User: Which sequence fits this backbone?
């Protein structure tokens, strides 16, 4: 018979009710109007979801931020006790949260909700949100390399620029800029950077933010973006559900954003319903599905916390890495 110790894992898994109970002592900071503003297309986000899922998560993250501050002060005191004054520690750097997950899983909504909720905690009111879309290579460069059809795959990003951005944040620079991406024109927008100034917390959201380091020409691994995260979250769901959500979102965009003549995807606006479904399935099965299977989903185990969604988009259980 196996002992109880044999059943131990490095994770704590909580169902929705147990997780929701952890947030009952905290006050809900968002109004229904604020929730409406952060909700993404197709996401079933309501006040109950925010209270039962994201309120406990924001409380946990706030505890991590406070603990990081305490550790910083302890390290500062330690270094300050050295005879060499050059060892004095600089001011505390921002707390960086990485947030990963598939296309259409709702990670962008999760990132916006967390940004708003964390900013309501008085200990860290300045919360910045940066998406990695801005670090995609421009379409012209993707075409030159012959990989426009692999947009969103790891090789389609300027990984050095993204790593440099996160390193600058964790170096404590007063001002750090990130490129801007337009989903309307499906390309990076030049000369319109997102500038991050002295934040308490930075949320970095993207498909591949938990990718491990690449091997250099000498066979040794380099640095990964996730090496500079203080906490990471992966938004998870079954691939069958995400494929359906992607298709539903495609159909909604066909009736809205795709009808803008300046949209990169305006050619889809006149598709019939059935043809639009076929095209959405083709895009998923040849691009987004393989990217999820081979590149995104394998990084789930690297996250500190996993939010697992059910078919109705609601989070049903949470897995947290033990300390």
Assistant:
């Amino acid at each position: 018979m196996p002992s109880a110790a044999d059943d131990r894992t490095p994770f704590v898994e909580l169902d929705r009710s147990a997780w929701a109970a952890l947030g009952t002592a905290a006050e809900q900071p968002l109004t229904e109007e604020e929730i409406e503003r952060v909700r993404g297309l197709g996401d079933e986000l309501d006040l109950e979801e925010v209270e039962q899922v994201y309120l406990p998560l924001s409380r946990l993250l706030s505890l991590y931020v406070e603990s990081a501050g305490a550790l910083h002060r302890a390290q500062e005191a330690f270094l300050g006790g050295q005879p060499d004054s050059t060892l004095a520690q600089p001011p505390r750097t921002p707390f960086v949260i990485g947030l990963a997950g598939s296309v259409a899983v709702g990670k962008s909504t999760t990132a916006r909700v967390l940004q708003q909720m964390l900013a309501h905690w008085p200990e860290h009111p300045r919360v910045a949100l940066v998406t990695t879309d801005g670090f995609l290579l421009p379409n012209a460069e993707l075409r030159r390399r012959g990989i426009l059809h692999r947009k969103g795959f790891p090789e389609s990003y300027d990984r050095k620029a993204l790593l440099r951005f996160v390193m600058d944040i964790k170096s404590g620079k007063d001002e750090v800029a990130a490129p801007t991406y337009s989903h309307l024109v499906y390309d990076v927008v030049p000369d319109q950077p997102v500038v991050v100034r002295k934040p308490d917390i930075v949320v970095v959201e993207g498909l591949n933010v938990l990718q491990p380091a690449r091997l250099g020409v000498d066979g040794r691994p380099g640095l990964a973006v996730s090496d500079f995260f203080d906490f990471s979250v992966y938004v998870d769901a079954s691939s069958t559900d995400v494929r359906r959500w992607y298709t539903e979102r495609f159909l909604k965009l066909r009736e809205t954003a795709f009808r803008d003549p300046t949209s990169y995807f305006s050619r889809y606006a006149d598709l019939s319903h059935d043809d639009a479904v076929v095209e959405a399935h083709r895009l998923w099965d040849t691009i987004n599905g393989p990217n999820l299977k081979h590149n995104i989903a394998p990084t789930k185990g690297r996250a500190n916390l996993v939010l697992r969604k059910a078919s109705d988009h609601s989070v049903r259980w949470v897995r947290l890495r033990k300390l």
Summary: The chain has eight helices and nine strands. The helical segments are 16-21, 32-38, 47-80, 107-119, 139-145, 159-170, 239-255, 273-296. The longest helix spans residues 47-80. The two ends are 28 Å apart (CA to CA).
